[in-house]
Every structure is written in structure tokens, then in C-alpha cells.
Amino acid sequence: MKEQQETANRPDNTAFTQQRLPAWQPMLSAGIVIPGFVIIGLAFIGIGIALFVTSQNIQVLERDYTGVENNSPCFKCSDPSTKNCVCKLDFSLDKLFEGPVFFYYGLSNYFQNYRKYGVSRDDRQLSGRLDNFQSPDEGCVPYQYDANNKPIVPCGSVANSLFNDTFKLYQIVNGARKLVPFDGKGIAWWTDHNVKYRNPSITPLKNAFNGTVKPTFWSKPAYELDPSDPANNGFVNQDFLVWMRRAALPDFRKLYRRITEGDYKNGLPAGNYSLEIAYNYPVLDFDGRKKVVFSNVSWMGGKNQFLGIAYLVIGSLCVVMSIVMLIVYAKFKFPDEE
Amino acid sequence: MYLSSVAVILCLFMKLGCLQLGGDERRVDSRTIYVGHRPCPATEAFIPPKFCDNRIVSSKYTVWNFLPKNLFEQFRRIANFYFLIIFLVQVIVDTPTSPVTSGLPLFFVITVTAIKQGYEDWLRHKADNEVNKYLVTVLENGQKIRTESEKIKVGDVVEVKEDETFPCDLILLQSSRDDDTCFVTTASLDGESNHKTHYTVPDTEKDLESLNATIECEQPQPDLYNNMLILKSLGPENLLLKGATLKNTQKICGVAVYTGMETKMALNYQGKSQKRSAVEKSINAFLLVYLCILVSKALVCTTLKYVWQSEPGQDEPWYNQKTQREKDTNLYLKMFTDFLSFMVLFNFIIPVSMYVTVEMQKFLGSFFITWDKDFFDPEIQEGALVNTSDLNEELGQVEYVFTDKTGTLTQNNMEFIECCIDGFQYKYRDAGSELDGFCVTDGPVKCIAPASEKEELFLRALCLCHTVQVKESPGPGQGQADGGFIASSPDEVALVKGAMRYGFTFLGLESKNMKILNRNNDVEMYELLHVLNFDPVRRRMSVIVRSKSGDTLLFCKGADSSIFPRVRPEEVDRIRMHVERNATEGYRTLCVAYKQLSAEEYAQADAGLREARLALQDREEKLMAVYNQVETGMSLIGATAVEDRLQEEAAETMEALQGAGMKVWVLTGDKMETAKSTCYACRLFQRNTELLELTVRTLEDGGRKREERLHELLLDYHKKAVQDAPPVKAGVTRSWSTANQDYGFIIDGATLSMVLNSSHDSNSSRYKSLFLQICQNCTAVLCCRMAPLQKAQIVKMVKNSKGGPITLSIGDGANDVSMILEAHVGIGIKGKEGRQAVRNSDYAIPKLKHLKKLLLAHGHLYYVRIAHLVQYFFYKNLCFILPQFLYQFFCGYSQQPLYDAAYLTMYNICFTSMPILAYSLLEQHICIEVLLDNATLYREIAKNAMLRWRPFFYWTVLGVFHGLLFFFGVRYLFSNPALQDNGQVFGNWSYGTIVFTVLVFTVTLKLALDTRHWTWINHFVIWGSLAFYVFFSFFWGGIIWPFLRQQRLYFVFANMLSSVSAWLVIILLILLSLLPDILLVVFRKPRGPNARQVGLTHSYPQTLRHSHGWTRHQTLSTALFSSLSLSLSLSLSLSLSLSLSLPLSLSLSLSLSLSLSPVSSSIPP
User: Fold this and answer.
1) Nearest CB to A285: which of B318, B969, B1013?
2) pLDDT tens-digit series, residues A55-82
3) Is B492 annotated as a binding residue?
4) Chain A contacts of B312, Cβ < 8 Å?
5) Which of B1057, B1083, B1109 is the last residue of a domain?
């Protein structure tokens, strides 16, 4: 009886309650840290070199075509009053631009990450829900309904401001212009194209848009974005999808086309080229800039010097620090070092 | 006829009382009770008075008011209110994040708290019901009626049987015992398990049915122990308290006087005032800083937004037109809502979850104290008790320890050592050759008759002059050698047992007759006439008895100081020497005196005592006056010496506390000599300690006025101890060094009150500061002859002194309660003097020796844990929100959140909360054995070392550094957003997700780096939360959530992982962020003579190393500040300008930190 009581009151003698759980007490001794730093440093230097070399090997061709300067080929188009303006941007390559070549357009001082802009969209509408065709989401204001109170589809600022400059690339071969075929597939995320954005399952697609109007800025309604290919029309149009994925920073580039076909499978051969630009997109009133970028990519993506250099710097930093530590340790000889 | 007349007398008594008071207005603070609801014929019209019913309501809420009341109470907390405001702003104003992000955590916190409080209240309801529905017997018109306890009304006559608890406060009218007494234990009220005797109202008629009486008594007062209520002719001995249990008595009848919430028990139910810990104050200070950061961030962003928008084209580009409503809004209103929006966006910098985590840490952490088997005392079968978990960390911050002597430093386990009768010393020898066990060791052995007579008188006095009860055991072996006696004070038992050893056995009290078995095995009977109870002011007690032969005798025992003036001086001289010698040996001495009362003397005393007991007002004072009058002209018989042995390991514990830098003050009611010897025995004073004495004795030495002398002595001691003392080097253990003179200070109660309440106001404050300075420079201070209130006064004085040191009081008795309540941390010892100290304490331990582990190990660990927890929480939220702030500069100050709402919400709740909670429960940066063996380690965290501004600054800088690194690292990666090998680009949510991933990993790994004690729980929780983050991100991005308006994160995480560049930047940034910390850990290594010395003397070199690593951390952190800030700016310039000359300058800063650290080792931590 007495023993029972004793066991009832006595605290449990377990490792946990007595704070005696077996524990690992990490000791960062010189023997671990210095080799560790050397190894990390060397690994980083290795990665850094690989990144740096890869980045160096990526070819990039960048051209601003905003047309601010008088001598710019697109200067005449920069006047907002001119309609359907086309300008030509000529350039030459003195060696093969290795393929596959990716063709980007870039915008500067353009705040796609503006909060009000970003929330001005209706993902339910874009996933093909017809309810939201007739009554778009509140967030779409001021592009929810037009002046006649008709719902705008696709609604919202993001969709409304779809980039609408178009490009055609010609190679000048013996004075003749040879169209370089663009591949417009695979420029948007696969999941966006196949899951997140859906057209309503109504054929023809046009009928789904009955009673709605196109966004005010658009020249043609959504169901005519690519009439030739139903898989690239409406909300699953890849240019539209690329635009709808908002850029993180005010200076950004977006993928426009890939050059993967025909004679240009291995890249753009040396020679003269002419880029025909249908100049529609106004950027000057907010002091924006437009550019085109040709680039090839590697395993690390597009050209980016930052990563390689950062790795090299940190790597060498680690190595230097391990050397410093070694000197310090040798000099001070920590007394209780086993 | 006789019976009814008695009733009338009682009734008249009442009336007399009323008449007496007739002059002044009728007292509102008294109540009249009609026994059995029968009006007293003598009083005017019977108006049944209204009293509350006997329902006990300890619950706070009812089903109906729970929600509003609980919510109101919760939102009275500043933090909850702040989050409510943020939530409301989010609901009302168009803000960047949905109200869910702050509403969900708030809802969670509020719900959890409400459930906890609701559950506690439900338990209280249940307990209340149990009490309220308890069946009791009420006598009504001669019939016994069983009814529920809650239906008892004031004035009801209640019958209680043995072992039942009293359902309300009762006046005892009738007992089944012959002697009109009953026995009661108050174990459930105050834990005292001894039987207390209560008496029926004297001379009441036995027939309760016909009893007509009124009782006038005070309005209820919560004081459980003092003169509980002034009843007409009734005293506390007639009152049976609700909650007490009837023992040894078949049944009693009593009239209910206080019911329900007006019972003493209910009035004492209120909790004591909340103590707040220093850590909480630090948290509030930090909170203020972060609030400032938050507001300034919002202000900066708002200002810049409008500056930026003033440029042409920026305010409203064509692609981002404003709605009509926005255009119409007033500019200033817009600015204001923008400001609010920024506030909401950055509000996560002040985390709700921190409060929850801190609370949880405290609550769960306190279990380790209760669980600790080292605190288990097999004797009382109990372990430690935690009454408040709010103060765990305060245990690691104690600077002053105030300890009681009796029962705390000493065992309060009294043993009769020797006595001195008429100048001869008698020592008890166990194996004595003499039959009676007496051995006269001093002076000539006289066995002549007078001496023997004196001896017998002395022993009879010991047998009679006490309030000891004999435990009634079923068997015939009454009064057996051990445990046969029950008394409120162990001294008394020791004395009675001492007398027993010399042949005089106290057999017990039977109907006011004390029976003694004398040496010749004859039973002597003495009629107990009066007991003049002991009180701490008089410091003595007396009994008046009448012997068989008809002599009326008064026996008195008490402290020498209170007896000597009351006996003949020539007797004193013979005994004083013995008393003083015994006192210096650390024994408790009592003097015994007696007086034979003549018939008139007795009659006079009897009348005086009775009158005083019946007095309505100033009863205490009147009684005291009579006592003093009666206890004069006695003759001294002898003195006793009782040993109170030191507690186990008392000296070791005190030494450890002093080694840990705590100042130990002994506050005792005992006399100076005894207390001093105890201090020597506990090694509080050592042989080379110079004692500075400031007592009545030293004051009277000079023969001058006390005030002058006090002034002189204070200045003198101040010069000695403060001015001449070399400047204190905190790093050096003062008590161990021989170079410095140690001082001990002794003051007694009378002098203290002179110091504190000096007649001149100017002097008073000066004396006080002088006194305080002297005390603070002494290693130990002894305050003797202290009244309980003075103890609290001293604690308060030290508590409020400069620097606000953390004080701890430890005691075991009712007289320590005041100082336990006053100190920052109150510790009760589960001793022999009842449970009052334990009930009022914050922590209770069975023995003094447990204090060492409680402070040095538990306190130290709790402090380190919670300090780290707090700093870490601020840090992790700073580097969480900083990138979001920086992002505003890149998104046109549009309040665009960088992270998805799910991440914003879950960051503090799920991803980073568990590792720090596990850390704050399990961390042992130094293992417990080392902490116990090296008391000096305690000094390293003294004065809130880990929560002062410097460590806070370090963490803040670290947070800023990490935040900058996360944001700009990813920013430069995104200079080309084509990060996938298929040329596709990443958008803003990818950006945020990369930053967030780096953040979660860095913050968790930073904690991993700080963890010195990896149990499987730490492993599980740290790697588990990282895995959970990855899993959650996949899950959250893997499904189109129908309830979301925007599928922002759909496949963002998966796509991020498919990019090699994203992987590389994540690894790079994590490593770079942790680099300063890794270096810090490496350079924390011990160096210098100090570490070496301890390392040599100690057998735990491994653990010690990181124990001293801790010191190093303190000192090195200063050194590394420079290098850290350097490397911060360096890494910034690194990421910004990618300068390659970096390694050089960084190695420079590194060597700087190295050259600094040896220097800093001489600087005290």
C-alpha cells in the first residue's frame, strides 16, 4: 500500500521527464570546419566556373525598338497617332547563332507587378466558367463591364493590356527576304496551357462569348486570337498565357517565339536579318521601353552572370577563410584541442 | 428553567451589545443572525435579514455570458487588440492581403484560449456543483431534513457528522463530546493536518429547538487566520470553517453564520496578484521597437509612393487605370488608407504566434519542474509544485535571495538538548548511567531535596505549559514515544517529549483537566483554567492551572528577552549565562517561569481575561494588556535548549547560491545569537567575514542617543564596506578571492524600523540609501528579530532599489507569506509549519537543497530558452517581412505582397513555429550536471544578459542582413527571368516563392546551428518542418482550389524546382546567410586562463567547452559585431557590385574579430 502510494506520487523516471533524452551535441571543431570550408569552397568554385563558362557561351542579341531617338527605325511609329505602323529592324550576325534560338520581347518601367493591376483578373472566368462570363469578378474593375454595361471577357487590367506588337523575322538571302519560321508552342507553362486556363466547352468557341464584349484595348475578341489552331485560341492562346503570368520586376522580358524549325533548327546562320515589327503597344507615355531579345539557353536558363560570379566569390571566400582559420589555429593552438 | 434562562442570557448579551452601541450609529459592518430563524423575544420586530445563499460560485462564466465576457477579456490584452485592429482594417479598407491572413491566426489563438478557459471553467462548474449539491442535514422545527448544501440559509441549524466537511461557516452550538468540544482538521484549507479543538458557545442550552438567540457578528472578512470575526462573546474557537472536516467527534450542530460566497473559504478564493517577469518587460520593449519599425516602414512607403506618383505617367499608366471610385477619393483619405494598407502588409513583423509560443513554452516548460525526480522527497511523498508558470525564466535571474531561518535553513525538527534548572545545567544522555537520565554537567551535583523540587516543578511546567494534543489512537498505547503529540509548533512537542524523557509524561486533556504521569507513575490532575496564547509580539505563552491541592499556578514560557524583565533579577543572572551560551551554539532557548496565584489574584485575572475576551472592539489590545498584567512578578525556574538542525545540504546550497553571484539575506524572527550561529553553520558568514552589527546592543554601547549612534555607525560602515572597498570586479568571484575583505551585516528589527522610519524625513531617505549601499556590498546580510511585515518591507526596499534587482524569497511558515508575495519569485518549502507559504508561493519545493537545482539548472535553462525564443521570434519575422518591404520599391509602392497569402499565414503557424518551441523546451546549451557543479555559470546570464539591447541589436542586424540577402540575391537572379532550360520565364509568384523557400530554410537552419542539444525531438521537428514546407508547397500548388479567387501558386513551386538556377540560388543564399553564424560558432571556442582552469578541474571537458563557448558568445558577439556589420556591408556590396576584392577585406575583418576576442576575454561577461 505504501509502495503504491509512493509510485503514485513519485515523478516518472523517464529520460524525457528528467530532461535526460540522449542528445547529440554538435561540436564544430577546427578538424571539421576547416576541411568543410575547403570542400564547400572548392565545390562552389567548381559550380561557379561551370556557371560562368555556361553563361559566357550563351549568345544574346538585344535591340531596343521603342523609337525614342530620331535615328531609330521605329521613330516614326512612336507617335501615338500613327496607326498600324510597321517598322523594320535590321541586324546582321557574323557567326552562327546557335539554336534553338529563343525570341523574347522586353518591357521596361512597366509595372506588371502593380497590386491593383494584378488583382484585376478573374481566374474563374479564365478557367472557362460561363457564369463568370456574364458577371465577371468584382476585382476586374475598371474592366469589368464596358460603357454599355456589357461584361468584358476576358475582364480585368491584365488581360486588357495584352502585349500586341507582332514580329516577323526575315533572313536576307541574296537580297531576297526569307521568312524565319517561328514556333509559338511551348512558350507558356505547360500547366497554364493545359490545366489552369480553359476555354468553355462550347463549339464554336464564339458562341460562348455571346453577350460579352472584347477588352477595350483589344483589336479582336479572344476567340479570334488564333483561329487557325483551336488549341491556341481563346484563353489558352500561348501569347495570352505568357502575358497573364505577371512579371516580378518592372524591367522584364517575356518569351515570344522559339526558332526550332526548318533551316533554322540549328540556329540562325550568319547573315543579314530584318525584323518586321507591327508597332502597336504604347509605352512612351509612361516612359517605358520596348526591346527584342534573341537568346539561346542552357541548362541554367538564359544568360545570367550573377550566379556564376556569386558562386566563385563565395567559394573563394570559403577557401580563404579556411586558410585564415588554419593560420589562426596554428598560431593560437587552442589549449584544449584534442 | 435553567436552560431557558441561559438562552435569555445569551440573548441579553446580544442586546447589551446593541445597547452599548446605541450611542453611535448602528454598525453597518455587523450582521444579526437569528438562530433557527426564531426571533429573539427581547428584540424589536423580527425582520428576516437578507443574506446570500450557500451557493459557491467559483466559475467565471455561464453558458450565456461566456462568449462576450471571454472575448472582452481576451481583447483587453494589448497584443490581441492590436491584431483585432489589423483584422478590422483588412476587412474595411481595400488591403493587399485578405483578412484571412491575420484573421485565421487570431481566430486560432482566441479559440484555443477560449477553449482552455472554457474547459477550466467547466471544471470549476463541476466542482461547484459537487459542493453545492452535497446533501446536508438541517434541523428545522425539531425535524431533521436532508437538503442540498446550496439551500442552507444563514441562521439554519446544521448537523454535521464525523468526517464530513462543514457546508458553510458555522458557530458550534452543540457537540456530541462531553467536554463541549469538537476536533477539526483544516487540511483542505491550509494543509495543516493536525486536529484543532473548537468549543461550543459557552453555557448554551442543550435543547436546540427551544433556543432563542441572536448572534451579532462582523460582516464577512477574508482573513482566514487572524481574529476571524468578532462575535458577541464568541471567538474563532467557536467558528467552524466551511471546508474543514470534523474529526474524532460523532456529530455536532451549528448555526450557519456565513454562507456561500461569504464564507471564509470563498473569500480567500481570489487569486493573488499577477507577477510579471522581467522577460515580459523586455518583450514589450522590443515590441515597441518593432512597432516603430513597422510604422516607419509604412510611412516611408506611403511617402515614397506619392513622391513616385507625382512623376508624369507613373500615377495612372494606360494599362493600369483607376476605378471611378479611386479617382473620386480625397487625396488625404487615399494617403491614409495607403498607410493602413502598408501597415497591414507589414504587420506580420509583430507575430501573434509569439505570444502563443511563449505561453506554451512557459506552461509546458513548467512541467519539467514538477517532473523532476530530484525534487521528490520520500519523506513527505511529494515533489515540487508549480503555482505560476509565468516566472520560470525569472528563476535564472535571481540576484537577491531572502531566506527564512527556521524551517528553511534549519529543519524545524526540534530536539530537546539540554535544560538549565536554577542555574544548573542538565544534559540528557542517551546511555546515561543514572536512571532518570539526568546528568548535571555544570556546577556541583546536588541531589538535595530543594533542587529536586525545582526539577520537578520545572518538568511539570514543561508538561503543563503548552497547547499540545495527544493523538487519540485506538489502542491503549497513548502518548507513545514518537508521533504521539500534535501541536502547531514543533518546539512544544520537543519540550513535552523532553519532559517525558525525564519521567513526566503528558497524558492528555480531558474535559479541561490535564493529566500528567509523574516519575512515580502517579497520575496528577490539573484543571486548565486559562491559556494565554502565544503571539509573536509578546513572544511567550502561559497557562493557568489549578492543582489537585487547590493551588492556582501560572506557568509561563517564552523568549529570554520577554521573560527576564518579568522575573526577579537575581534569578536571571544565574541563568543568563547558560541561555547565551546555548544561543551561540545555535540552539533555540526558552525560559520557563511560574507564579503562584492567590485566590484574589486569580479572581482578578479571571475577570480581566473574560472581560477582554468578550470585548467587541480592540479585543486584541485589551487581551494583551491583561496578559501583560497577569504575567508579572514570576519567578524563573529554568531554561531549555532545543536544537533545530540545519537542513540537509544547507551549507552547500548557500555556498552555491553565493557562488552564483546571489546575495543571501537571512530574515528571521529569531534572536541574533541563534541566527548568527546558523549563518556560520550555513557558511553564509565565514571565519574571515567581518561582521558589521547594527543592533539595539551596538546602538546602546556609546551611551548616547540612539539616533546619533545610528547615524555614526551607518557612516562608519558605509565607509568601510562601500567607499574603501575596491571597485567590484564582476568577473572575479568575490567570495573566493582572498584579497577582498568580506563583510557580513547584521541588523535587528528595532534598528531596522529606526532606519526605515526615522523621525526626520531627510534622514530617513538618507539612512535608507546608506543602509542599502552597505547591504549591497556585503556578501551576506542577517536581519533578526523581524516581524513578518518587516520582512516584506526589506524585500520591497531591495526590489525597488536602483537597477531593480530580481529578488527571491523562500520560506516555509505563515510569517514568510508576506515576503513571498512581495518578492519577484516566491518559493515555499513544504515544511512543517503548515501550508500557507506553499499556497502563496509561486513554486514550492520540499527541501531547501532543491533550491540549488531549481535556480542553477532549471532557472538558467529556462532563461536561456525563453530569451532565445523571444530574440529568435523577432529575428525571423524581421527577415520575413523585410523582403516584402524591399519589394515595394520595385512594384511602384503598390502594396503588392511578395509572398502568397498561404505563406504569409502559415509562416508563423506551421513552418517555423515547431522547431523553436522544441528548442525552447529541450535546449540544454550546458548540461545540467555542469550547471550544478559550476555555480559561476549562473552569473553569465545575470542582469537579463540575453535580452538586453546589445543582443537584441545583434539579432536585429542579423535579421536585416538575412532579409537584404534574400531579396537582393533573388533580385539579381531575376535580372533575367528566363530561368528554365526551356526558355520560359518566371513571374512574380515564383520570385516570392524562391525568397520564401530561402527564408524558411535559413531561419530553420539558423535555429539548428544554435541548437546545442539535439534530441530526437529536435531532429524530428526541424527536419520535419522543412519537409512539411516542401510537402505543403507541392500540395498547395498542385491543386486548383475552388475556394480561391486566384490560383496564384498553381505549380509555381514545382516549376521552381525544375529550374537549376533556382536551386543554385537557394543553396547559395542559405549558405551565405548562415556563414556569419557558422563562423561565430567556430570562434566561440574557449580561450584564456579562465576556461582552462575550469576545464582542468572538471571532468566534463566536452560539455564545458560549450559552456564556456557561451561566455565567448557574449564577449565575441561584441567583437563580431564589427566584423558582422562589416561582412554585412561586404556581402551587400558583394551582391550589388560583385567586387572581387572581397575575400581580402573579409579576411581582414575576420582577423579583426580574432584579434579582438582575446582582449575581450578579460572583460567580464
Assistant:
1) B318
2) 999 999 999 999 888 888 888 888 888 8
3) yes
4) 287
5) B1083
Most confident range (mean pLDDT) of B491-495, B1017-1021, B1081-1085 is: B1017-1021
pLDDT number for residue B1122:
39
Nearest CA in chain A to B1013: A25
Q: B926 and B1034 share a domain? A: yes
Chain B hits for A51, Cβ within 8 Å: 1064
Residues of B labelled catalytic: 404
Shared domain for B572 and B683, answered yes or no, is no
**Interchain CB contacts (distance < 8 Å): A and B:** 292
Residues B522 and B592 in one domain: yes
| CATH number for position B577 | 3.40.1110.10
- CA dist B751 and B694 (Å) reads 7
In a shared domain, residues B935 and B1047? yes
Verify that B580 and B682 share a domain, yes or no. no
Which positions ≥6 away from A182 have C-beta within 8 Å?
Answer: A103, A167, A168, A169, A256, A257, A258, A259
Mutation target vs B (from A249, A329, A334; most B CBs, 10 A cutoff): A249
Domain count, chain B: 3
Give a yes or no: residue B94 inside a domain.
no
* Domain final residue, candidates B845, B879, B897: B845
Is the model's pLDDT at B1138 over the cut of 80? Answer: no
Interchain proximity B988–A246, CB inside 8 Å: yes
Say yes or no for a CB contact (<8 Å) between B317 and A17: no
Mean pLDDT score, A235-254: 94
Whether residue B50 has pLDDT greater than 50: yes
Residue B984, domain member (yes or no)? yes
For an interface test with B, the pick among A42, A183, A300 (most B C-beta atoms closer than 10 Å) comes out as A300
pTM: 0.79
Give the range of the structural domain holding residue B911, as residue numbers without chain letter.
Answer: 352-366+857-1083
- Which pLDDT score is estimated for B192? 57
Q: Which residue has the higher pLDDT, B55 or B586?
A: B55
Q: Which of B894, B1061, B1154 sits opposite A328 (nearest CB)?
A: B1154
Contact call for B983 and A187, based on CB within 8 A: yes
Residue B1087 is assigned to a ligand binding site: no
Residue A338: its pLDDT value, please?
39
A307 neighbourhood in chain B, CB within 8 Å: 973, 1061, 1064-1065, 1068
What average pLDDT does the segment B951-963 reach?
95
In single-letter form, the type of residue at position B1085 comes to: K
The Cα of A176 is separated from the nearest Cα of chain B by a number of Å equal to 30
Residue B222 has pLDDT above 60, yes or no: no
| Alpha helices (H) in B215-350, listed in sequence order | 264-267, 278-309, 324-328, 331-346
Residue B758 belongs to a domain with what CATH number?
Answer: 3.40.50.1000
Same domain, B400 and B417: no
Does B785 belong to an annotated binding site?
yes
Of B982, B988, B1082, the CB nearest to A248: B988
Residue B343 counted as domain residue: no
Name which of B315-324, B1038-1047, B1083-1092 the model is least confident about.
Answer: B1083-1092
**Is residue B839 a contact partner of residue B191, using CB atoms and an 8 Å limit?**
yes
Convert the pLDDT of each residue in B631-686 to its tens digit: 888 888 888 888 878 888 888 999 899 899 898 999 887 777 778 888 888 888 88
User: Would you say the C-alpha torsion A144, A149, A154, A157 has a positive or negative sign?
Assistant: negative
Neighbours of B794 (CB within 10 A): 27
d(CA B1151, CA B1149): 5
Partners of residue B845 on adjacent β-strands: B829
Residue B1011 lies in a domain: yes
Does B24 score more than 50 pLDDT? no
CB-CB contact of B656 with B939 (8 Å): no
Cell numbers 549568345: residue: A59
Q: How far apart are CA B1058 and CA B1054, in angstroms?
A: 6
Among the partner residues B924, B990, B1055, nearest to A19 by beta-carbon distance: B924
Structure ipTM = 0.96
Using pLDDT thresholds of 50, 70 and 90, give the confidence band for residue B992: very high
**Closest listed residue to residue B461, CA positions, set B580, B590, B564, B562:** B590
Both B571 and B698 in a single domain? Answer: no
Do residues B656 and B635 both lie within one domain?
no
